[in-house]
Batch of 4 targets.
Target 1
Amino acid sequence: MRDVWLIFVRSIRPTLSNPVVLIFGLIQPLLWLVLFGPLLNSAGSWQWFVPGLIIQLGLFGTAYAGFALIPEIRSGALERLRVTPVSRVALLLGRVLRDVVVLVVQCALLVALSTIFGFHASVADVVLALVYAAVLGLSIGSVSYTLALKLKQEYAFAPVLSSTVMPLMLLSGVLLPMNQGPEWLYTISRINPLSHVADAVRAVVNGDFTADSVWIGGVVLVVLAVLCLLWGTRTFRRANA
C-alpha cells in the first residue's frame, strides 16, 4: 500500500499542478450534455441521459490513460522504477488510482452542471453512482496500461483503442436506448458489459434500488474489475521480473 501511494502521488502531481487537465477531460461529455441532451425532450430524459454520460466519461476518461505510460517506457523512466524495491504491482495500481480519483472528480462536476438542465438526484444516489464509475475506471484503466505495456508504441496503441472504445460506447446504450433498435443489435448490446453497468447506474440515480439491473450491473462490474486487475497485475509482474 505504501508503494501504491508513492506511485499515486508521483502520478497525480502533474494534474494538481495543471488543473486544466480536469477541465479538458470534461469537454466531450459537456458537449453531449449541451448539444445532444436537449434533443431528448421527453419527460425524465435527463434522468436517463446523465447516467449514460457518467459511463461515457468512465470509458473515455480511463481508456486513453495508457498513452501516459508509453513516453515513460521510451525514456527509460519505467525501467529505472523497475530496478527499485517498489512493488511491481504498485506501478500499475498507483497509476490507476490516480485516474480513478480524476474520474470521480470529473463525474461529480458533470452531475453538478447537469442540475442546471433539470437533472436531479439525492446525494446518496449520486455517491453510489460514482462508486460504480470508480470501479469501471479501475477496470478500463488497468486494461489501458496493460495494453500500453505490451504494445509500447503509440501507432500500435491508438488503433487498438479506436477499434474497441467506440463500439463499446455505442453498444452500451449511453446515448440512445438499444431496445428501440433492431433485435439483433439489442442482442449484441447485451453482450457488452457496459450496457449492464449503464442500466445499473440509471436505476441507482433514480433511487430504484430494487431493480434487477442494480445487482446485475454490480456483479458484472465486480467480475470485470477482478479480471482486468488480474490480467494487469500479472502482466506488470512478468514484464518487470
Note: The mean pLDDT is 87.
Target 2
Amino acid sequence: MSRRTAALLLSLALPLAGCASGPDYRPRGAAELGVPGSYSVTAPAQEREDLTRWWDRFDDPQLSSLIARGAEGNLDVARAVARLRQARESLVQARGQLLPGVTASGGYSRNLPVNGGGQAGGSFSIGADASWQADLFGGNRRGVEAAQAGYQASGFDYAQVLTAIQAEIARNYVLARAAQAQLANARDALAIQDDNLQIAQWRVQAGLVSSLDVEAARAQRAQTAAGIPSLEASYNGFVSRLGVLTGQAPGALKPELEAVRPIPRGPAAVGVGIPADTLRQRPDVRSAERSLAAATANIGVAAAQLYPALSIGGSIDAGAASIGNVFDVITGRLFASVAQTIFDGGRLRSQVRAREAAAEDAFLAYKSTVLTALEDIENAIVALQAARTREGEYRVALDAASTQALLARDQYRAGLTDFTTLNQAEAQLLSARNGLVQAQSDGATALIQLYLALGGGWDSSVTPEAPPINTGSTPDGN
C-alpha cells in the first residue's frame, strides 16, 4: 500500500475515532430500583449521621483499638487490597490499547571465510517498528470505560470487606464481654448456692428438715456449675476469633481481654435518614452500580467487533559495515490494512447479545443488592428496638427477683419457708441476671448491625483506590 493511500485511510480514521459503539451508561434512579420514600418500620426522624467511625460512639478505647488493628492486619482486608491492585493494573492495560506499540531492535552479523574462500567482514543494523490499531468505533475506549468501572467496583468491594470486618470485630468483642458477665453471674450464683447447701446441711443435722433439702441444694449447685465450662468455652471462642480477625494467632489477645469490662452500650438513637441514602452510603450497593456500568460498557466492546478494523504501522531500518556509519543510509516503510469479518456463523452478534444479557443480569443484581440493603436496615432497626424493650423489662424482673431471692433466703434461714421456694427464687434471679445480660448484648450487636447496614465504617464521599506500590524492591523481593 502506498504512503498516500495510508495517509488517506488515517485521515478517514481520525473523525471516526470519536465514535463509540454500544449504549452509553445511564445511572438508575431510586424509583427504578424500587426504593420507597420511607421505611416501613418506625425509625428515628433524624438525618443520617456521619458513621465513618461509628465504633467511637461506644466509648470503649479497647474496642476502637481492636478495630484499628483489624484494618491494618486482617488478612481478608489485605486480600481485598491485592484484588484492588489487580483491577488497577487491568485499567492500565486497557488504556495501553489506545496507544501505538513501538519496538526497537539492533544486531550485528559477521562473515567468516571457510577454506580460504571469501573475505571476513561484519555489518551493524538498527531498526524500529510501530503499529497502531485505530479505535474507529470506540471498542478500546469502551474497554477502558469497563476497566475503570471495574476498578471502582473493586474499590467498593474493598470497603465492603473492611466494614464487614469492623462489624465482626465489634460483635465478637460484645459477645466476649457478655460471656464474661454471664460467667460472673454463674460464679456469684454458685457461691450463693454453696451457702444454701451449707444451711440445708445444718438444718438437716439439727433435725429441722429432711435430707431432701440437701439433695435439692446439691442438684441446683451441680446444674449451675455444669454451665460454667460451656460459658468459658464460648468466651475462649470469641477471644480467639478476635485474634484471627486482627491478623494474629488465636490466643494473642487473651491477656489483653482478661480483665472484666462491661458490655459497650452505644448511643440511645441513630439517625438512619431516608432509604435513598442507601444508594450513596452502602459500599456493596456502590459496587453493584459500578458492575452495571462495566457490563454496559462491555456491550460496546463486543459491538465494535462488528465493524471494520484499521491497523496502521511503519518501520525504519538502518545498516552499515561500521557502527559509526550505521545512520548514513536509512530506509523506512509505512503500511495500513483494513479488516472486516464477512462470515463467522453469527459468533460476533451472539457475543453482543450475550453482553446485553450480562448487563441485564447486572442491573437485576444491582436492584437486588439495594432491596437487600433496605431489608438489612429495617431488620436491624426492629432488632435494636426489641432489645431495648427487653432490657427495660429485664431490669424490672431483676429488681423483683433480687428482692424475692433475698426474702426467700432470710425466710429459709428462719425456717419460715421450704427449700423449694428458695430454689425457685434463686433460679429466677439467675435467669433475670442472664436475661438482662443477653438483652444488653443483643442491643449492642443490633446497633452494630445497624451501623453496618447503613454502610458505616468508611468515607462514602470518596472512591477507595489502591495504595501506591512500593517501588523500593525488585520482583524477587530484594
Note: The chain is about 60% helix and 10% strand.
Target 3
Amino acid sequence: MTNTSSPDSKSIGELVDLSGRTAIVTGGAMGIGLGAVRRLYEAGANVVIADVNKDAAEVAASEFDQPDRVRTVVADVSSPEDATSMVRAAVEAFGALDILVNNAGIYQGSAFLETSLEVARRTLEVNLLGVMLCSQAAARQMIEQGRGGRIVTVNSVESVNPSVLGLSHYGASKHGVAGLIKTMALELAPHGISVNNVCPGGTRTPGLSPLMDEDAIAELEKRIPLQRMGLPDDVGRVVLFLASDLAAFMTGTQVIVDGGQTLRGAAV
C-alpha cells in the first residue's frame, strides 16, 4: 500500500522540533560548527560537540543552560577509530543517534604549483575521507536503530566554482564531497536516511582572521551581491532546516548559502 502520509500536516513548530533527537556536530567547538550546535540545541536536540580541540569544545559546551543535553568528545574525523568512538559516545550519553553534521574541515592556501603532497593529502584526509568515515559510523548506527536519520555535510562554494585562487587541493576535497553525498544519498535512502550538503561562501569565523585582513574582507564583500560576509548562524539555520522534518523529502541536494557570491562566476 502506498504511504501517502506527509509531515506537511504538522505545524511549523512541530516540523522543526527536534526534542528527543540526538545530533553530533564535528568541528562543533567554534565557527560554523558552533552556529549549527546552537540552532540544533535551540530546536530541542541533544548535541554532541566533536572536535580535535578539547578545551574549545568544553568552552563551547559551557554556554548552554541545560548541560545534560550537551556532551563533548575529542575526535579526529580522519581516524576510523575516532569516528566510531564519537558515535558510541553519543549513543551512550543519549541512547540513540538521529543527526550527523559533518562540519570539521581544514583550509590552507597554497598555489597549485607549490602545493606539497603533505598538505594535499591531509586536506583530503580531513575534508573528504573524514566525511566518509563519520557518515559510515553514523549510518551504521542509524540503520541498526531502524528509524532513519539525517546526515548534513557543510561543504563549500569551492565545490561549485573556485572563488579564491590557491585552493586547488581544497577545492578537490570539496568537489569530492559533492560527489560522495550523491551516492551516499542513493545507498542510504532505503534506510530512511537523508543526505544533503550546505555550501557556504565567505563566512566570518575565527579561522578567517589569519587568512584575510579587513581590507581583503572588504574587497570580497564587494563581490557578494548581498554586500556582506556570511555569519555562522546563516549556515546554522540551513543545517537546522536540513536536519528537521521541513526537509523530509530532500536528499542528495546541495544548498548554497553565499549571499549570491557564486553568481559572480569563478575566480579570476
Note: The chain has a mean pLDDT of 93.
Target 4
Amino acid sequence: MALQNIGASNRNDAFYRYKMPKMVTKTEGKGNGIKTNIVNNVEIAKALGRPASYTTKYFGCELGAQSKFDEKTGTSLVNGAHSTAKLAELLEAFIKRYVQCYGCGNPETEVIITKTQLVNLKCAACGFISEVDMRDKLTTFILKNPPEAKKGGKDKKAMRRAEKERLKEGEAADEAQKKLKKKAPSNGKEGSSKVSKNHTSDEDISPKLDKIEQEVDEDDDDDDDGIQWQTDTSREAAEKRMKEQLSAATAEMVMLSVQEAEEKKTPKSKEGKALVHVMKEYLKKGSPLSELKAFISSLSEPPQDVMDALFNALFDGVSKGFTEEVKKKKKYLVAATQEEGSQMHLLNSIGSFFGKKGNEEVGKEVALVLKELYDEDIVEEEFVLEWYQKGLNGVDKSSPVWKNVKPFVEWLQSAESESEGEA
C-alpha cells in the first residue's frame, strides 16, 4: 500500500517518520442512491490515531451529506459522488484541526475532553494542549462519542505503583551488587590462583614471614646509624601530648562549625533568585514552547528548585486576577509537568508561592488556580489530595494556603464519593 507523509507541510520531507496510507475511494450505486466508499479509511484513521467514525463524520459535515461508518465491517460511506482529490483535501483539513499539535505541528496527539466539555489535543512531543474550536460541527459528535481512554484512572495508579516497585527492586539490586564488589578483594583472582597452584598453608608461610621481618629489622638498624629513638614517658610529657591532641581536635570542631555557619550564611534564597533570573531571561527570548522541556532538563539544579524558579518567573509581581494569568500561561506549566513527579513539584511550588509573606491577597485565589489546573488535566486528583494531606501534617502546617485550599479539596472528595456511590 502506498504511503505518504502526514500533513501537507511535510509532503516533501523524505525523512519524516509519521506516515499514512494514500486515500483510496470507490463510487457505488446509481442515481439517488449513489455513495462514495472510502475503502481504506480504517487504515488511515489508525495511522492518525483517531477513530474511523471521526473522519467519516467529518466528511459528511463538510460536504453537507449523510455519512455512515459500520463498526463491524469497517465500511465508511458518504452519500453522493465525491472525487478522491476532494476527500483528500478535506482529510488534510481534519488533520490540521484534530490531529496536529497547534504548537509544534507534531501529529502525535491525544484527544482530551475536559470536565467543562471542551475538546483539546494533548501533544506527547512538547506537552502543548491545543484548544479545538468548539464551533466546528464535529466537536458535538466527539463529545457524544469520546475516544476510548488508553488507560483508566485505576490502571494508571496500578502502573505507577508497579513502576515504583520495579525501581525499588532495581535500587535494592544495585546496592547488593555494590556490597558484593566492596567485599570481594581487588586481587581476588590472583590470590586464588596462587593458592590453588602452591597450596601454601599458614604453617608454611609463618617461617617466611619471620625471616622477612628479621631482614627488615636489620635494614632499619643499618639506616639508623646507631641512633636510638626513645619516647618521653614522664607525666609532664604525657600531659603535654594530651593537650596537643585535644587542641587539634578542638580546632577541627571549630573549623567544622565555621563551615556550617558559612553554609547557612549562603542561603538558598540567593541561589533561587539567580535561578529565577535565568528562567526569566529564557522566557524573554520567546523560544518555542517545545524547547522548554529540554531547557528545564539541562539545568543542574534539583527539579523542585527549577519548578519553583519557573513558577516565580511566570507569576512574580502578579497581584490581581491571578487565576486569569494562570489561564494565559498554563501552556508553560503543561510543558513543565511531563516528567514523573513533576505534578507534585508544581503543587509544592504553588504552596510555597502562595504561602510567601506578602502574597496573602493572591493566596485567596489558590483554590481557583488549582481548579483551573485540574480542569485542564495539568494536575490530577490523587496528587492534589496527597499534597494537601502532607501540608496539613508537615512542618509548615500553619500556612494559610491549606485553609484556602480546603474548599477545593472538599469538593474533590465529595465528587469522588459521589462517583463511587453511583458505581
Note: Residues 3-105 form a domain with the Defensin A-like fold (CATH 3.30.30.170).
